[in-house]
Amino acid sequence: MLFESPYVRVAAEYGTATLWLGLPGDPPNALDLARLRDIDAALAAVEQTPFLDILVVRSANPAGFCAGLRAEALASLPTPADRAAFAAAGQQVFRRLAGLTATTVAYIDGPCLGAGLELALACDHRLVLSRPTTHLGFPDGPPCFGGTARLRRLVGRRTADRLIASGETLSGREARRIGLADHAFCERRGKIELHTFLDRLECHGWRPKPVPVPTVEDAAERRAFAERPPTVAAAPALPPTLNPIPPFPAVVGLVGDDPALSRLAAEVALRGGQVVVCGSGDVVRAGIAASLARGFVTPLEADQANGRVTAGDDLTGFDRAGFVLASGPIPAGSGNVIRPRRVVAVVQETPPPSPLPRGGRGDQRKTDPTPLACGGRGEQNRGRWSGPPLPPRGRGVRGVGSSVDPPPPAGEGARGWGLRLFPLSPADPDTAATLAAWLRPFGYTVSLDPATPPAARLAA
Question: Where do you find CATH 3.90.226.10 in the chain?
Answer without folding.
Answer: 3-226
